Amino acid sequence: MTLEPVHIKEIHEIVDRIDICFKDDRDEYEDTQKVKNILDRLRKLEYNGKIVLQSIGPVRRAKASIERMVRSDDPFPMTYSCDSGSTTAKTFDNGLYLDICHCAIASTPTDLDIHSKRTIVAATYNASKKIYIDTSKGWESFDNNHCRKKIIRIQPESLERKVTDILHDVAMYLCESEHILWMLDSIDANGFFIMDGPIYPKRIMYWMVVDSEEVRIRSEPSITELIQNYIDIMDHHLEKMKPIIGFVKNPEDMQIMLALKKQDPGLDLPWLVDAQFFRNALSLEKTGMKKKEADKYITYTNWFMQPNQFYDKMLRSTSPLVTELAGGKFDAEDYALCFFMAFVPKLNTMFKIESPYGLVKNEELKNLMTRKVLYDLAINGIPATLSKADSIAKIPVSERRHIVDRFRNSRIDTNYNDTRWEEKA
After folding, report:
1. SS3 label, residue 222
2. How far apart are alpha carbons 209 and 4 in whole angstroms?
3. 24 in any annotated domain
4. Is 275 a domain residue?
5. Residue 406 is assigned to a structural domain of this protein
6. What ranges in 42-102 are assigned the alpha helix state H?
7. What is the domain range of residue 206?
8. CB neighbour list of residue 42: distance below 8 Å, 6 or more residues apart
9. Sheet strands (E) in 48-163
10. What is the pLDDT of residues 320-330, one digit of tens each?
11. Is residue 147 a part of any domain in this protein?
12. How many domains is the chain partitioned into structurally?
């Protein structure tokens, strides 16, 4: 039985009762001032004597005409983007956990030789020390050395919970970082590099610094290796002053809102996620502009440096130099996370663009990276090379099923929800 008209009527009544609570009867000046006051605090946001966020230059909001950007030239002759596809972490009834990740780099204009290179990492876990898994000693090449693969295992004593999350992150970040390092010499020195998502493996970094009896990955070889990989990637770009950004399509960070609330417990903020605040701050409609006119622009902020972020109840560096096991060629500050926010009113979508401070502190390079992002957003709504990389690297649902069905001695561990909410595409 589906919903009857009487049920729909009552649900509509519930919606109306909730929605009316958010009717904006406040003075427009009050809203504008609230956003402006918060932006003023972002010049230098501190907590417990440590800087959480600092503006690089004045705090500002700007808009770029899509029409003018479309008529301008791409500031970079070659654009590269890295992305990966995953089977998603699978659980089997014999205790095996598995995630297989497949990584590719796309380019614009297209370079078929670069597109043909692939890296595959299979990350495994089983809680028993008696179970043997045939892991790789090194990289195993195939397809006439165009591709390579590796099987790794996270040790039984490392995880007691968060297994699927950690396994997925290890497979993805190890695969992507290894593929980028493998391909660095094939990438045009004048090219622009886009990573899909953040520039660092943030969730892995979190578990590297937080004390936990159930997640003990600090000395896990594959994890310290992938952290070092990201430092090596940044070292390459910092040495040559080559641009690299992380393009975060669904920013979920809560660092700024959390820091503001901790700094001033009396501050009444309606937003939980940073992107919710920036969406309001960058909305041209909030300034009185009609939607049809607002859709002609992309709005964006200045760059910010985020040297520290909240890990549990403590502040720790956003640099990937999170343990004594990893080392870089530059000062820790040069690896610090920097970002700016961009809002595309036509798509009603907020993006976060990240890069290390060692690049962003170069004024000319910072401006070039900003202009390149705005150009790509104006042309395609999302960088075309990023979409191209996604289409190359993606593992379709049908292929995921074939991979799982290939197992003969391990059976997928399903529950009722897996059957009810089976993937369709």
Report:
1. helix
2. 52
3. no
4. yes
5. yes
6. 66-71
7. 32-420
8. 53, 55, 59, 256, 304
9. 50-55, 61-65, 79-86, 90-91, 97-108, 118-125, 140-142, 147-154
10. 887 677 889 99
11. yes
12. 1
